[in-house]
UniProtKB/TrEMBL annotation:
Family annotation (PANTHER family): PUROMYCIN-SENSITIVE AMINOPEPTIDASE (PTHR46322:SF1)
Residue intervals of the Peptidase M1 alanyl aminopeptidase Ig-like fold domain: 467-558
Organism in which the protein naturally occurs: Novosphingobium mangrovi (ex Hu et al. 2023)
GO molecular-function terms, A-Z: alanyl aminopeptidase activity
Domain Aminopeptidase N-like N-terminal: 115-209
Protein's UniProt name: Aminopeptidase N
Amino acid sequence: MDIASRPAEPEQNPQTADAAPAPQAPPVIRREDYLPPAWLVPEIALDFDLGLDATKVTSTLSVKRNPEGNGASTLRLNGDQISPVSVRVDGDAANDWRMDGPDLLVELSGDAHEVTIETALVPSGNSQLMGLYASNGMLCTQCEAEGFRRITFFPDRPDVLSTYSVRMSGDKATFPILLANGNCTAEGEGENGTHWAEWHDPWPKPSYLFALVAGELIANHGTFTTKSGRKVDLNVWVRPGDEGRTQHALDSLIASMKWDEETFGREYDLDLFNIVAVSDFNMGAMENKGLNVFNTRYVLADPDTATDADYDAIEGVIGHEYFHNWSGNRVTCRDWFQLSLKEGFTVLRDQLFSADMGSEPVKRIEDVRILRIAQFPEDSGPLAHPIRPDSYQEISNFYTATVYNKGAEVIRMMRTMAGEERFRKGTDLYFDRHDGTAATCEDFVKAIEDGAGLDLAQFRLWYSQAGTPQVAASLTQEDGKAVLTLHQTVPTTPGQPEKQAMPIPLRVALFDRATATHSGESLIVLDKAEDRFVFADAPADPVLSINRGFSAPVAIEMARPDADLVFLAACDDDPFARYEAMQSLVVQHLVAAVGGGLDEGQRSAGRKAIGEAFRAIVTDAELDDLMRGELMLLPAESYLAEQLLVSDPGAIHTEREGLKAWLGATFADELKALHDRVSAVPYSREAEARGARKVKTQALVYIAAGDSAEGASRGIAQYRAASCMTDRQGALMVLASLDCTEREEALADFLARYEGNALVIDKWFSLQAGSLHPRVLDHVRALAKHPEFRMSNPNRVRSVFMAAAMNPVAFHDPSGEGYRMIGDIIRRLDPINPQTAARFVPSLGRWRRVEPVRAKLMRAELERIAQEPDLSRDVREQVSKSLG
Ligand code: 0A1
Ligand code: ZN
């Protein structure tokens, strides 16, 4: 029997046993240590005997020695919390294998062999949601980054590409639908109510792109014909009952396929494309070849249950995963340090797609807002890392805003410098050169360099240096010419005490104050620590518009008269620059106020300038409402905190709320008129109506800040009149922060109305946990005890605790209770789902940038977590870096 081949006690290699790391210090994986694999696996056949509580996996690997490898006779197959039931080599029970920690090592004598391994899994017990797991009665997989090793033993690294053949069988009533990558090649009935299916994926792929789904599912079906005439069947699979909420996802998929052909010349390469929505998922979605698995959140939508923002997010994520078919799947990553190769590029692609589907300037503003809220703090904190990191302990911790969003900004800069057409030549060359291979960031840069004709020698620093460059700007007049002096500093970050100057492409224009025009925009590149740029034919008294379109992901430092910012907020022809001027006006004022640097006169002068710009935004009949809604947003508290070395979150909150209330009270009539106007616009998905809805809630936010009674009555009126989730959620968000009876009425109605709809109930939780209500901490405690709260469901956990961690009122409560709550959730969640638990650590990790009393409490929470004896590698890495 096969099992007899298993040694009684797995042999321990004394050397590795000695070197085994202490549990306190997980091994560090370094980019510079990369070695090609010793063995390749050109083919793999997987056979799954499926069951929710017990699944048997038989995997047959055709392995061959890699001519570029080190010639080792040992085949290392990674595993994680699995053990082999049997191991055979070339059909015979093998004796020559042993375990090395979680990995299986097999000694092989020749150059090519067939290795067959059996494993036994318990999907229903898999709460980490990595590998094969049960969700809502179905089975599904998640393999990126290192989940395949939880299914079977395999060289689980992205540079081992294999052709997959999959057979699966299981109870037909439990698993009526059986899906895997590629095409279904055969199916049939088995014994005792079982059935089976065989799938084959012709495209070699790394193990992280493997997927399998089995369960009771129903599809919304569509088709797409590619530009060369391939007819592709499209399916969006969901649980029965959800099919009425899948059309937007299907439409977004079709739009993505068309867009990628037109914009990047990329065509789909299989006859079938399946999307499956699952309700338990650690991230947003996953680009498995031909079988994308999605968090239900990024699939299900109808006007009654999803907001306009949800619709946009679905379109963006569907696009993102689809675009991975080329940027990620056809050309994959050599190792996980190259993650930004696929993620940064794919984020850029999904941003450009969404911009083309909607409003380009609004999309740009949104993307920059996200970068500033999520990535800037990361880049200035203890977890800062370059977009191509040099080392990690747990790769799951590197799916970050830096790798994704800053990664996209870095590639966007190349596009800005090359221009669209030349950039396209670069990407064409990249796809041509590296199709079917596992590539590096360096390969990408080289292809853009060669294809677009750019010199990117110095630009490569953007891949290796962390930290957001700070650019100090000043404009002077010399001999009738305007001189722009720029000085850059790249802050020190962990492990990188010294930095070199980076090339920073800046789009600039000099406005004539009298005519509110400029004579053309220029692109300048600051590639030294300091440089001067002379503008010969500048107007006499110019106003500088700099980093237009946010051409570089940097912080511009320039003390500017309010009048200049008011001018740009009103007159700049670059919509991003208008937004930026408004933001700067507010940031400058609030930062001074928080620092206690404003006397009453200065405070009222600052408010007057902001008020002038705000009134123009609220009343400008020329402005479209989508843009108006964006311009009305005050800078986030986390972005304000970024401007200060050490800040008092309480003071930031008070000042920002104070300004909001002042604007609400001062412009009450204008805001009410605006709220009335947009409330009369009937529901549609057109831009105009979406803009009206965005402004409606924005106006309500200010009205409520200025006059809470008016806010409560308009809020409940908006709630009751709502014919869609955007209006209903907007009203509930405002009411949730008020201490009034209308709040309770709306919350109770919402819960009853949407009973059984998990995604909407998530909103109910997060609106309360994210509210500015003075008793928000009590509310969060109660929510965690609510019968609908589930620790096993990441969406639900995030809806309560991520909302609370991101909510300055809850998180930074002076008592330290907010920190304790997040510390507790990390400790409680870690044994269940370490990946999701680790995502809460960065909020506490910002302690050095917070005033000393709170900083001490935050640090104490991290220390309390660090004392837990069995922390996961995920949480351990984040906590130790945050303390270190
Ligand atoms: N590649 C996916 C992100 C992803 C990464 C890890 C996961 O494991 C839980 C899931 C998804 C993307 O960029 O969409
Ligand atoms: Zn991605």
